[in-house]
Amino acid sequence: MKVTVFGTGYVGLVTGTCLADVGHDVLCVDIDQKKVDNLNNGIIPIYEPGLESLVRDAVQNGLLHFTTDPKRAVDHGELQFIAVGTPSGEDGSADLQYVVAVAKTIGELMDGYKVVVNKSTVPVGTAEKVQAAITEQLSARKSSLAFDVVSNPEFLKEGAAVNDFMKPDRIVVGTDSEQAEKRLRELYAPFNRNHDRMVFMDVRSAELTKYAANAMLATKISFINEMANLAERLGADIEQVRNGIGADPRIGYHFIYPGCGYGGSCFPKDVKALINIAKGVDYSANLMEAVDRVNQAQKSRLVDYIHQHFGKDLNGKTFALWGLAFKPNTDDMREAPSRVLMEALWAAGAKVQAFDPVAMEETQHIYGLRDDLKLTGTKEAALEKADALVICTEWKNFRAPDFELLKRTLNAPVIFDGRNLYDPARLEEYGFEYYAVGRGKSV
Ligand code: NAD
């Protein structure tokens, strides 16, 4: 099938590439000329495991193209995917300007039936706004071309995006159009060989499903973090508690890791957007407000421990930092807990020596060159002459370090672990002062 994808970010590029990989003829369009030039030269703008080779193969097979030309884009696909950003506005609401801009472009340039598929995460009622924007453009042209607007929220996880797209748990489609349903079934058939993963529903329910999923996941994290904060004050170990509760299949072990808070481009923004959506219908989303509050505070947990250990003034102190990305296997720094940490350390007069396997370029891009930030080539180099090690991301490569080397290299054997990677008893034997989340060192 011929498919156009607007937006070549994490969602758009993965969607376009995976659809091309199974044989669809895909044209990806972006307004960012540099991104498109890079893609046309085989340079992938993001780090996502497995993506680069898939893009290369699909381009070689002639099934994946990139453009900034809106006319070419609208002409190409009967299916027009919208996968552009929906960042938080000032009041926390989802900013729909990019989505509406794409809708207008489609309405302005289409010359035959189109299925407009919205993959961006958008508030309930956005499909109607997209519909209105297209209709307005068509009316201005005195055209009455037929089209359908479908909601098809994306559930991929950064760091495992290709696998998630190729083997989705479910493919949610909101539509009341038989024609659109037929097209979407055909489009996704290659991903349904094992069993039918399609879940059709009405458009509004599909839009809310995405927020409900992210809100649930964010709630799990804030829940366990709240328990961790309690455990700390009560002299309990949250990791033992986690094991104890996870054994109940109604709870499970998944996604209840305590730590220094959730980040990324989705959970913080989507929880805030949901609070805002609720306000719009005179409902107070108390639980979501608490989830957000707990998370904001949790992002400062490591800073609290650091002040507890070193005092308020951190002038002259240097901190080794392992992990910058908001989670492993991505270079995404949006709302990353490491940013809250670094900014607090700088404000208190400290320097940071950081290492991340893939997010250092992005960090440099965000913070530029500054005296109080040194990005190091290895995780060991980050330790040199540092007064303590801080861990913000649970990269696999950080899980079993050489503790003797760590002790020798740091000025003092102190670790602040925002991801609970190590066994406190073992670290005590090694002679470390070890601060982890919810494991006994009460603030
Ligand atoms: P992103 O910021 O990585 O990419 C968005 C891209 O859209 C950018 O390259 C931008 O230049 C482009 N763009 C903006 N306006 C455009 C236009 N008029 N025409 C063509 N391109 C345009 O965003 P993302 O992380 O891929 O997220 C996209 C949407 O998907 C968001 O709504 C997000 O909430 C949702 N989502 C994201 C993830 C994720 O893990 N990142 C997962 C599921 C859903």
Automatic annotation (TrEMBL):
Gene Ontology annotations of biological process type: polysaccharide biosynthetic process
EC number: 1.1.1.22
SUPFAM superfamilies in the cross-refs: 6-phosphogluconate dehydrogenase C-terminal domain-like, NAD(P)-binding Rossmann-fold domains, UDP-glucose/GDP-mannose dehydrogenase C-terminal domain
UDP-glucose/GDP-mannose dehydrogenase C-terminal domain boundaries: 320-424
Record's keyword annotation contains NAD: yes
Coiled-coil region list: none
Alphabetized UniProt keyword annotations: NAD, Oxidoreductase
Reactions catalysed: UDP-alpha-D-glucose + 2 NAD(+) + H2O = UDP-alpha-D-glucuronate + 2 NADH + 3 H(+)
Family: Belongs to the UDP-glucose/GDP-mannose dehydrogenase family.
Keyword presence, DNA-binding: no
Pathway(s) served: Nucleotide-sugar biosynthesis; UDP-alpha-D-glucuronate biosynthesis; UDP-alpha-D-glucuronate from UDP-alpha-D-glucose: step 1/1
Sites where the protein binds substrate: 155-158, 210, 255-259, 263, 327
Active site: 266
Name of the protein this chain belongs to: UDP-glucose 6-dehydrogenase
Organism encoding this protein: Cellvibrio polysaccharolyticus
Function: Catalyzes the conversion of UDP-glucose into UDP-glucuronate, one of the precursors of teichuronic acid.
Residues spanning the membrane: none
